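Hey, quick one: can you model this chain's 3D structure?
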Amino acid sequence: MISIYEYVCWVQPWVQHELIKRGLLSREFAIPRYPEITLTFAETVDLMRHDSYKRIRGAIRQMGNTVVIT
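Sure thing. Here's the predicted structure for all 70 residues.
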């Protein structure tokens, strides 16, 4: 279960910085923001070879239980 604080820190990281700047949050309690994951083209192609992905009308879509998730 994710707390509201964790969700806000992930979606709106500027809120955490503002709380630290105003002295309402200590740096020890702050959640570190990890760098974004970067994939190479080959890694992306390898991940998309799974059966749950299909090319439909030129776009790659994730397939659910016989339902296209758009």
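One thing worth noting: The chain has three helices and three strands.
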